[in-house]
Design brief:
The chain is of the alpha/beta class. Helices cover about 40% and strands about 15% of the residues. The protein has a single domain, classed as Aldolase class I (TIM Barrel, Alpha-Beta Barrel), CATH 3.20.20.70.
């Protein structure tokens, strides 16, 4: 079965059914379906036959990645389907966000789809089981054979002044079971959280987290809505304190228009974010002369989008919304598409493509 056939089947059959469901319920059912499909050996074998992409190797953070495409945070908050994501062919997985304290999140409805814009708006509010329950779950779960990152946030009940302790506790408890951490100070759905992107607050968080990170890579995830000078300042702070890299970017509070769904409060992900996230990637790559790893995320829906992120400076990339609008076949389309682009340009190593647009 070809990628095009699988994608068409998803568009004609699955997506219309999901579109009539509440977005959050559709999300939960999709997760449940993946868990069920990947539960048995035969199920995993079928998923591999249908969806597994080619290998496009790259090394980063001292780890080997079979391909540069990862699952972005928020898709699998509680790490429920790690085996399924690995089976689909993701090169790495980011679960969470997780906060020190368990949270129910914001009132429902809090997730909205716009097929017109190929975009999602969410104001989930870091709903998660908390660091103790998450650590217990990760301790029992089978760790995937691809790098696993944990997205770490701040509990709503924790003051900004004590935020560094909140982040550090989650890292301390969950640290033994993951390969790296992403400090999330850029979600628009926790009151005042983005204030923690200020240099002094961010430095305090990084310093405390580093005490418990076990020398595993620590990255910072930033908002796309910052001014360029603010982004450079955050980069200088995080890099100077030993962070391994940066995730660019989180969701945006900007909107492409004033339609009904776009008027909902929350963070916007998907196609409208693509241009700005690439701009931020390029800004960071230029500012660091391409010497600091960037994970590019925001509006990637096909291999052309992925290639643009990589050639502007991202060594790894992530998707979220495109899984909702294109289905699981998008993993194979993106990775195999990158493989074709490398071969067409006579490039044998993906690393050689990282940031090449900067030299054009």
């Amino acid at each position: 079965m070809t990628i095009q056939t699988m994608g068409l089947g998803y568009s004609l059959l699955v997506r219309p059914m999901l579109s009539i469901m509440d977005s959050e319920k559709a999300h939960k059912r999709a997760l449940l379906g993946l868990r069920f499909a990947s539960f048995t050996f035969l199920g995993r074998m079928l998923l591999r036959v249908l969806y597994r992409p080619k290998k496009v190797h790259i090394e980063e953070f001292g780890m080997a990645f079979e391909n540069p495409l990862g699952l972005a945070a928020g898709m699998d908050k509680k790490a429920e389907a790690m085996q399924g994501w690995e089976t689909l062919g993701f090169g790495f997985i980011e679960v969470g966000g997780i906060t020190e304290h368990e949270q129910t999140g914001n009132p429902k409805p809090r997730m909205f789809r716009s097929s017109k814009h190929s975009a999602l708006v969410n104001r989930m509010g870091f709903n998660n089981p908390g660091s103790k329950k998450m650590a217990a779950h990760l301790a029992k779960a089978r760790k995937p054979n691809v790098p696993l990152f944990l997205n770490v946030g701040k509990s709503k009940i924790t003051s900004l002044e004590d935020a560094h302790f909140d982040y550090a506790k989650t890292v301390e408890l969950c640290g033994p079971y993951v390969d790296g951490f992403v400090i999330n100070v850029s979600s628009p759905n926790t009151p005042n959280l983005r204030e923690l992107q200020k240099d002094e607050d961010l430095a305090r968080i990084i310093s405390e987290v580093m005490k418990y990170s076990r020398d595993k890579p620590v990255l910072v995830k930033i908002a796309p809505d910052l001014e360029d000078l603010q982004i450079k300042s955050i980069v200088d702070t995080a890099r100077g304190m030993g962070c391994a890299g940066i995730v660019a970017t989180n969701t945006t509070i900007a909107r492409p228009d004033e339609s009904e769904i776009m008027s909902e409060k929350g963070g916007l992900s998907g196609k409208p974010l693509n241009k700005r996230s690439t701009e931020v990637i390029r800004l960071i790559a230029d500012h660091t002369d391409g010497k600091w790893p960037i994970i590019g995320v925001g509006g990637i829906s096909d291999s052309d989008d992925a290639w643009e992120k990589i050639t502007n400076g991202a060594s790894l990339i992530q998707i979220y919304s495109s899984m909702v609008f294109n289905g699981a076949s998008v993993v194979k389309e993106i990775v195999n598409g990158l493989d074709r682009k490398l071969k067409s340009k006579g490039i044998t190593d993906l690393r050689q493509a990282v940031g090449i647009a900067r030299g054009e």
